[in-house]
Write a structure and sequence with these properties.
This protein is α/β, with parallel strands linked by helices. The protein is 47% helix and 14% strand. It has one domain (2-102, 138-153). A four-stranded mixed sheet has the order 2-3-1-4, sandwiched between helices.
Length: 154
């Protein structure tokens, strides 16, 4: 199974969801700023990364986990990914998860400042606080996806 978390920029909500899925970040407590910044790709993408499916790791069930930035395509991207998978005969092997609905205003503002216009300060502190605020919604999303992927593997 291949699990693809995607969001607008592929730098924040999808990366944090993938990190939770892979247990890089613990779900039982809010991560520190240092822990979040240590996650591969977190707040580290640029325009060249949009549309690229980036490997994050393999989970404890053997599923490959990826992240993707898809700009403003919304859930259309999930449908495109699943359509291509169906054409290739791999529709049952892919789960595409849109993380954008888990993003709060602080994450949007901080991500815009940090990634889009390059103002790391003050953008990153706002982004980090926003990610901590959204953390439990990301945990809930990932737990649902992990159950879904386990059921598909059976």
């Amino acid at each position: 199974m291949k699990v693809i978390y995607h969001c607008y920029g592929g730098a924040h909500s999808s990366v944090m969801a993938a990190a939770l899925h892979l247990k890089i970040i613990e779900k039982q407590r809010l991560p520190t700023e240092e822990e979040m910044m240590a996650v591969p790709y977190y707040d580290k993408t640029d325009n060249g990364d949009f549309g690229s499916i980036r490997f994050m790791g393999i989970d404890d069930s053997g599923n490959e986990v990826y992240v993707l930035g898809k700009k403003s395509m919304g859930d259309k991207y999930s449908r495109i990914l699943m359509g291509v998978a169906e054409i290739l005969g791999a529709g049952d092997e892919i789960i595409a998860i849109d993380c954008l609905n888990r993003v709060n205003m602080s994450m949007k503002l901080g991500g815009f400042l940090s990634r889009r216009i390059g103002l790391i300060f003050p953008g990153r502190p706002v982004l980090l606080r926003g990610t901590q605020k959204a953390f439990m919604t990301l945990v809930n999303l990932v737990e649902t996806v992990r159950l879904k992927s386990m059921n598909r593997c059976r």
